[in-house]
Design a protein that fits this description.
The complex is a heterodimer of chains A (510) and B (300). Chain A is α/β, with parallel strands linked by helices. Chain A has helices at residues 2-11, 19-28, 36-60, 127-146, 166-178, 191-204, 219-222, 236-250, 265-281, 301-310, 321-333, 336-339, 350-353, 380-393, 399-422, 428-435, 468-473, 492-495, 503-509, and strands spanning 64-78, 86-100, 114-120, 155-161, 184-186, 208-210, 229-231, 256-260, 286-291, 314-317, 342-345, 364-368, 438-442, 445-449, 455-456, 459-465, 483-490. The longest helix of chain A is centred in the N-terminal third of the chain and has 25 residues, at 36-60. Chain B has 300 residues and is an all-alpha fold. The chains are: A alpha/beta (510), B mainly alpha (300).
Chain lengths: 510, 300
């Protein structure tokens, strides 16, 4: 066929084949003898194969047999004649062969720093959410490095802005995994972003701790096969069940409830869980008004007016961050706190620090973690964390900061334990396995990261109060912003559903 | 309180929110009408207005240098300070893109928005701020079963005065006539010897001042955080679509439609209150694609 093509081209020198035809014609050409380059390629492949084989042989080689000189003392009874039996002690030297396995080589600890990735909203109303995480990571880095690092390795961290959209957060997670090559990540991002980034973390093998996300929507991602993500935060079960219970104890006469909830998964979840609980256990429970302001609204006055008009006994709101600050200001302006007898704010303590002394007393607040509970004299991890944080930042931490401590401690404990066992720096599957069912002495008390990567923990809420006496020991506290007094603690078994069970199904099953 | 009182209290709240939107979208439409520039950075100037107003209130009025009532004056001063930035931005940046398409202008002004946001972060940090005293010091009045803060009346009155001032400038002064002429036929006005560059700068500054006033007047009502200008910027595009791009009358009507529908929707249709505003926008665009008061085409 190639001859025919050649003959044709000789008769038609100006003819041009299409690219497809050219490709096909090239395939018709007889194979040329291999040139020097090809020969060297084959030689190179052969050498590489020999090297691989040698390495494989070495690794798979049977145990070596060594000769060892062994000196033993034996006692022998010598009886040349029965009446002359005597005991003689002789020293016998024998040469024995002893099979010894090849001694494992202890791999040195890498000298490069351990990098913590931190993706967070540094701007906007969500910025306040992760501020405590950021400040905690900075404190942890300084504190652990002063103590020699983790197994001698210094710790450093990289901060990245999450952006305002989910795809931006996903991009940043990819960057810290692939470009920054962090060892693990503690990222304070929105609930929807957490749900979207979890599979990405699994795909990239990035160990990820979420210190801020309370949504139950994260559960399927956490427990997915091969998951490398963990919740390092007291989840919304504590808020909804803890606060609902506390409200029933504090205000048994209160039946009519109004909601002002942020219109996204977190707000919807809390609404569903608390209303389900109250429907079951609060006789006469009635929802008299509900309002769903979008996140990051700047005007809550219509919601406030409508809620006041409904005359509820309790207002439940999960507005947080900048939304809570704006809502608080407008609600006070409209006299909401005078007109509605009881208010529950599941907002988290970060929201009380922002408006400072504007926060009214007497609000039942779901703070998830309170920097004064357990008391410092009772629980050293709390004291160490709060005092170190305050010394560095002149502020007090809240729950997203405690989440950073949980994530950091989990990673540190895992690698320290594994290196001791295996004498080499552990890889991701081992670290993940080690973290599962790990107990951690967190600042807020003992917590455990369960096999489905959920955090098993108690939950804290309490009544806002101003107390100048507290400020004598903790500057500004109880004066510039409220503390909680009294404090209500919900034990884990009362608020955390069993493995594999959704909170709503668990409540429904009672 | 029966249904009518709820309706009237929601109406009043809607008017307050609409007033802020009026100032914001007046400035935006002014810049588009006369400079043919869609200014994405308007949200950044609004944010600056809030922060400057907060700083003036907390460092002057609330520190006792001036009486607390001076806050009512300081919020206007803050807006004026924001306008000074316009004297730098227009000749330095915007003048270079007048002859280019809207896509280039959008990119430039969006970049400017990001820069302004970052300047705010650098200057005031990332923390949440709040100036509660500025909202409460005028007291409340009981209306329709709620305690209506008196500051809201001040805001309504202030917005009305400022909108009237802009109308007066544009329709009752030589300056305003010249601005309208240059919007109709730029080259002819230049040929008559008018310094168009100076005029454009002044127009831009006025637009920016109104964005700053929108923010500074809202400062007492709201929490303060970086990026707060995003919500009015998004709503302003709905207002422009409803009222008509390039129409100041449309800016006012569109602001009231959006503000009032939003407020009443929250009260009676909370599940779909956001959707209602977009639904109204879609209906208007179907009937009048240029908006209620927009021109079919703008002649330059």
């Amino acid at each position: 066929m190639a001859d025919i093509v050649d003959a044709f081209l000789k008769r038609n020198p100006n003819f041009e084949f299409s690219s497809e035809a050219e490709r096909k014609i090239k395939n018709l050409e007889p194979k040329k003898n291999p040139d020097r380059r090809v020969f060297l390629q084959y030689v190179g492949a052969g050498v590489a194969g020999l090297i691989v084989g040698a390495i494989g042989t070495f690794l798979l080689s049977p145990p070596k047999v060594e000769e060892k000189v062994v000196t033993r003392t034996e006692t022998v009874t010598v009886t040349p004649k029965p009446e002359e039996a005597r005991t003689v002690t002789t020293t016998v030297t024998k040469i024995e062969t002893v099979a010894t396995a090849p001694q494992p080589v202890k791999k040195p600890i890498p000298t490069t720093p351990i990098k913590i990735g931190h993706v967070h909203a540094f701007t906007g109303p969500a910025a306040v959410l992760g501020e405590s995480t950021t400040l905690t990571i900075r404190w942890l880095e300084e504190d652990i490095n002063a103590k020699g690092g983790i197994l001698g390795r210094k710790v450093t961290h990289i901060e990245r802005e999450q952006g305002s959209k989910t795809d931006e957060a996903v991009k940043e997670i990819r960057k810290i995994a692939l470009e920054d090559k962090v060892d693990f990540s503690i990222s304070t991002i929105g609930s929807g972003m957490a749900v979207a980034t979890a599979p990405v973390c699994d795909e990239l093998g990035l160990r990820q701790f979420y210190p801020a996300n309370r949504t139950a929507d994260l559960l399927p991602a956490l427990k997915a096969p091969g998951s490398t993500t963990f919740r390092a935060n007291r989840w919304d079960a504590g808020e909804s069940l803890g606060l609902a219970r506390a409200a029933m104890k504090l205000w048994p006469e209160a039946k009519k409830v109004a909601y002002i909830q942020p219109d996204y998964s977190y707000g919807r979840d809390i609404y569903a869980e608390t209303s389900l609980f109250w429907k079951k256990f609060l006789p006469g429970f009635e929802i008299v008004a509900e309002a769903w302001p979008p996140l990051y609204s700047t005007d809550f006055t219509p919601h406030i007016v409508k809620t006041i008009e409904a005359k509820p006994d309790i207002l439940y709101t999960s507005l947080w961050g900048g939304d809570w600050v704006t809502f608080l200001k407008q609600a006070k302006g409209y006299g909401l706190f005078e007109k509605i007898p009881h208010v529950i704010a599941g907002a988290g303590q970060e929201s009380f620090h922002g408006p400072g002394a504007e926060t009214p007393e007497g609000i039942l607040a779901g703070v998830r973690y309170h920097w004064l509970w357990p008391p410092h004299e009772m629980w050293p991890p709390q004291k160490e964390y709060v005092s170190g944080y305050y010394t560095m930042h002149k502020k007090y931490p809240y729950y997203t900061g405690e989440g950073a401590v949980i994530g950091f401690t989990a990673y540190r404990n895992a690698v320290e334990h594994l290196y001791t066992q295996k004498e080499s720096w552990p890889d991701t599957p081992d670290i993940v396995k080690a973290i599962e069912n790990m107990w951690i002495a967190a600042p807020g008390g003992w917590v455990m990261i369960r096999e489905d990567h959920e955090l098993v923990c108690s939950d804290v809420n309490g009544i806002t109060k101003y107390d100048p006496e507290v400020a004598k020991k903790y500057p500004g506290a109880g004066v510039n912003f409220p503390i909680l007094d009294p404090v209500f603690v919900s034990p884990a078994e009362e608020i955390i559903p069993p493995v594999g069970m959704h909170l709503k199904d668990w409540i429904a099953s009672w | 309180m029966g249904i009518p009182t709820l309706f009237f209290s929601l109406l009043l709240n809607g008017l307050v929110f609409s007033a802020m939107l009026v100032l914001f979208s007046l400035g935006l439409n002014l810049i588009f009408s006369y400079l043919n520039v869609l200014n994405m950075a308007h949200g950044g100037f609004y944010t600056l207005g809030i922060y400057l107003s907060m700083t003036l209130a907390t460092t002057i009025a609330l520190k006792g240098l001036l009486p607390t009532y001076s806050i009512l004056l300081l919020v206007f001063v803050a807006g004026g300070i924001v306008g000074l930035i316009g004297f730098v931005v227009e000749p330095l940046l915007l003048r270079r893109v007048y002859a280019r398409g809207h896509a280039d202008q959008l990119l430039l002004t969006y970049g400017l928005l990001l820069i302004l946001d970052d300047l705010v972060k650098l200057g005031w940090g990332l923390e949440l701020h709040s100036v509660p005293e500025a909202y409460y010091f005028l007291g409340n009045v009981p209306l329709f079963g709620v305690s209506f803060p008196n500051y809201n009346f001040f805001l309504l009155f202030g917005c009305f005065i400022l909108a009237w001032i802009l109308w007066f400038i544009l329709y009752k002064t030589i300056f305003g006539k010249t601005c309208r002429a240059i919007a109709e036929h730029r080259d002819m006005v230049r040929a008559l010897g008018v310094n168009s560059e100076k005029l454009f700068t002044l127009i831009f500054v006025i637009g920016v001042v109104y964005a700053g006033w929108g923010g500074s007047l809202m400062m007492p009502l709201t929490g303060i955080f970086p990026g707060i200008g995003l919500e009015p910027l998004i709503l302003s595009f709905i207002i422009v679509a409803i009222g008509g791009l390039g129409s100041l009358k449309g800016a006012v009507m569109g602001s009231f439609i959006v503000g009032l529908i939003r407020s009443i929707g929250i009260g009676y249709f909370p599940e779909i209150e956001l959707m209602i505003v977009y639904l109204i926008m879609a209906i208007i665009l179907l009937i009048r694609p240029q908006g209620l008061f927009g021109r079919r085409e703008i002649v330059w």
